Amino acid sequence: MADGVIPERQPHRSKFLLAYFVLAAIVGVAVAVFLVFMQTDTVKTSAGATGQGRPAAWNGFRPRGFMADQVHEIATSISSTYHLPNGHQLVAVKASIPPSYQNALIITDYAVSVSSSGGSSYDVIPAANSVTYELCGLGRQCSIESGAPSIARSRLLRREALELALYTFHFEPSIQTVVTYMPPAPGDKASYVLLFLRSQLAGELARPITATLPERKPPLPNAMSATEQNTVDGLTAPDLYRFSFTRGQDGGVWLVFNPPTGS
């Protein structure tokens, strides 16, 4: 080491730094790949655990936005597919969260008549986690103006209510009950309502909607297949009630469900 000059070491140092950066890059890529797999696995596990690992769309339709936006979109989309023989839409549909009727009453509880060997009694169901739909025919008191009331038309209305409930339960996991107000006959006031519970439709929710309602386009009132007639009657007839309102002792409004007395 003459004259105190330190021998040149840069070539070895450069090689060391290059190796270091290459190693760091490899480690970084490995960590990134690991995190991606972990995240994917977590999403799959979470979806499986919560029961929400469902397809991106159900029957080609998926609502967007917040819950209120989604149920409004469900109401608009489904109602636009149901028609009368003259080509007019069967009914308009209004969705409400929290549950209400005609924008005037916020409902806190449902009192449902239950038959038993000892007579009738009432089960009280909190109205939280519930959606209400109002089917309005745009005539007086929401009646359907054209055509005459019939069993076939009533069945088509119940099919629409069933489809609304299925889509709501499918896309809104927190919703436990769907209440649908039916339009009255001309000259009458609305008095009938359908009550759907998530637990009662669990079997239908576990498979594609076309397994329950095979006709992708809703039929006209007198053109429903015998298969769908049986399905609609079986899933909706037991859930049809007459309704009324009462005040609870806490001041809350209760919607009361009583057995139907007519068709």
Largest sheet: 9 strands, mixed
**Structural class from helices and strands?**
alpha+beta
Q: What general form does the structure show? A: globular
Uncertain regions spanning at least 5 consecutive residues: 1-23, 31-56
Average predicted confidence as pLDDT? 81
Strand content is 15-25%
Determine the fraction of residues in helical runs and give it as a percent range. 25-40%
Number of helices: 6
Measured between the Cα atoms of the first and last residue, the distance is: 112 Å
Rg over C-alpha atoms, rounded to the nearest angstrom: 29 Å
Could you state the order of secondary-structure elements as H and E? HHEEEEEHEEHHHEE
Count of the separate structural domains: 2
- The number of distinct β-strands equals 9
Task: Write up this protein.
This protein has helices at 10-50, 67-79, 151-171, 202-205, 209-212, 226-236; strands at 92-96, 100-101, 105-116, 119-126, 130-136, 177-181, 192-197, 240-247, 253-258. By secondary structure, the protein is α+β, with helices and mostly antiparallel strands. It has two domains: 12-48; 67-258, no CATH class. Strands 1, 2, 3, 4, 5, 6, 7, 8 and 9 form a nine-stranded mixed beta sheet that branches. Strand 2 and strand 3 (105-116) form a beta hairpin. Helix 2 packs antiparallel against helix 3. The termini are far apart. Mean pLDDT is 81; it is low at 1-23 and 31-56.
